[in-house]
Design a protein that fits this description.
The complex is a heterodimer of chains A (135) and B (330). With 135 residues, chain A is mainly alpha-helical. Chain A is 51% helix and 9% strand. In chain A, strand 1 and strand 2 form a beta hairpin. In chain A, helix 1 packs antiparallel against helix 2. The radius of gyration of chain A is 21 Å and the shape is elongated. In chain A, 36% of the residues are buried. By secondary structure, chain B is α+β, with helices and mostly antiparallel strands. Chain B has 2 domains: 165 residues, Cysteine proteinases (Cathepsin B, Chain A, Alpha-Beta Complex), CATH 3.90.70; 146 residues, no CATH class. The model of chain B has no long low-confidence stretch (mean pLDDT 91). The chains are: A mainly alpha (135), B alpha+beta (330). The interface between A and B is large, with 41 and 54 residues.
């Protein structure tokens, strides 16, 4: 890549930051160049963010309808999936799935609640309540 | 403290080159990356990231620091901790002694990261060079300027559980050698990298791994929505996480150029040029994927696979050239 081919697409995903790339100048010598974004990369990032947002929105509706516990919503809201949350919180995956049931979730001990809360960087009060508005 | 923050393309090679330069062993990021024989490719479907297979374009975390320091004869001390309190105290003690400390952290808990980049990736490296009223002074190599992080956030980032859990990992440079025989270690590092890229016993590693991924794309039985997610994931792993596949090829090309100048060797310059072309092909592939994913037409999988094969072939040629060079020098 030539230094003048280094993309400068001002991507929102960089939030005003610049990242460093190595590219060749006119003499073919490598040097470092800052880039403020690349459309191709930004699209892939935004797609991944959008995927979690969609999952969180769908989860919010399920929780609102009383089919799932708030844990289910916060998992996607924190950009996690089942496998990851189980590992971060240190619980079995089948336990985690059980805790998605509102009746089971309501009976969880403070100890296990705080484990989930810590894993997702929330307070226990937050974890037990669904936000009022759909994200 | 006369520490000089320096921006880098990749966190791990950036941290270690900054750290060594601070300790009097001036080294560029590409040289650090190349001497660690860090260029790689691996497609590992059993390890899932957000439900998608792991695709790596360089050696696993910590391998760059370890490999580089072993090759240079630098003594590094690694410490892990069971309890966050212990880990925080150890960091404070080292800072009080005026040391520069490298840390492994999770991106998700670092507040200075752009919101859209905060995913659960636990192997991000950064340097701490001081503390001021409850705030750590942090030199994050992928950012332009040094930043500050509150103690709570940094502790959280150091002790998150899950895949690649950092367990509070911190490292300091204990001693650096006075004399380094660059001609010898450059040859060694390139020889080792040839093995990683062409000599792995598994079909999912090295150049064969790229071919394998091409076949996976071509023979995919996923529906279009799933296939788009998979392709988007490949591009993300390639371009965003760390510095991505193409980015690493350019770093390595820069290393080959620097090494060629140092050893006054034209073959390395040639290899650098060829590696640059391989990097350009990786970028073309990313552009093609982005284009395919945007349209609502069915995805042209075989075209994408062909592009990837072209990239693999180009890389194969670089390694062939380097193999001949290596045999002559050994």
């Amino acid at each position: 890549m030539r230094t003048d081919d280094v993309p400068q697409d001002n991507s929102s995903t960089y939030a005003g930051h610049k990242k460093l790339l190595y590219a060749q100048n006119e003499q073919g010598h490598y040097q470092s160049v800052q880039s403020n974004g690349w459309q191709v990369e930004a699209e892939a990032t935004l797609d991944a963010v959008a995927l979690y947002e969609r999952l969180a929105r769908e989860a919010w509706q399920l929780v609102k309808a009383g089919d799932k516990s708030p844990l289910y919503f916060y998992m996607y809201h924190s950009r996690m999936d089942e496998a990851l949350l189980a590992q971060v919180a240190g619980v079995w995956r089948w336990c985690l799935r059980r805790h998605f049931k509102p009746t089971v979730f309501a009976r969880l001990t403070p100890k296990i609640l705080s484990r989930y809360a810590q894993a997702m960087d929330l307070s226990v009060e937050q974890l037990t309540q669904l936000p009022d508005t759909q994200p | 403290m006369s520490f000089q923050h320096r921006q880098a393309a990749h966190c791990e090679s950036g941290v270690i080159s900054s750290l060594l330069t601070h300790h009097g062993l001036a080294i560029s990021e590409p040289m650090a990356f190349g001497l660690a024989n860090a260029l790689a490719f691996a497609y590992i479907p059993v390890v899932k990231i957000g439900g998608q297979p792991l695709i790596a374009y360089r050696l696993p975390p910590k391998a760059i620091i370890k490999g580089l320091c072993r090759r240079l004869g630098v003594e590094v001390r690694f410490q892990k901790f069971k309890s966050p309190v212990e880990g925080a105290n150890a960091l404070d003690d080292l800072l009080a002694q005026g040391k520069m400390v490298g840390l492994q952290t999770s991106v998700y808990y670092l507040p200075y990261f752009p919101q859209e980049m905060r995913f659960h990736f636990n192997a991000h490296n950064l340097l701490v060079y001081g503390e001021q009223s409850g705030q750590y002074l942090v030199s994050d190599p992928v950012f332009e300027q040094p930043v500050t992080v509150a103690a709570r956030d940094l502790n959280k980032a150091r002790f998150v559980r899950g895949p690649l859990a950092p367990k509070g990992l911190l490292y300091t440079v204990e001693s650096v050698p006075k004399h380094i025989d660059y001609a010898r270690i450059i040859t060694q590092a390139i020889g080792k990298n040839i093995k990683v890229m062409t000599g792995a016993p598994l079909p999912v590693i090295g150049v064969r791994g790229v071919m394998h991924l091409a076949k996976k794309i071509e023979k995919s039985r996923l529906d279009d929505t799933q296939q788009r997610l998979f392709l988007g994931h490949i591009v993300r792993m390639q371009e965003e996480i760390g510095t991505g596949g193409a980015g690493f090829r350019f770093i390595y090309a820069s290393f080959l150029q620097e090494a060629g100048a140092l050893l006054e060797d034209e073959t390395l310059g040639e290899a650098s040029q060829a590696m640059t072309e391989a990097g350009d092909l990786w970028r073309d592939f990313a552009v093609a994927v982005a284009k395919e994913c945007k349209t609502s037409l069915p995805i042209n999988n075989s075209q994408l696979a062909d592009l990837l094969r072209l990239t693999a072939t180009r890389e194969q040629q670089v390694w062939q050239l380097l193999t001949q060079w290596y045999k002559r020098r050994r």
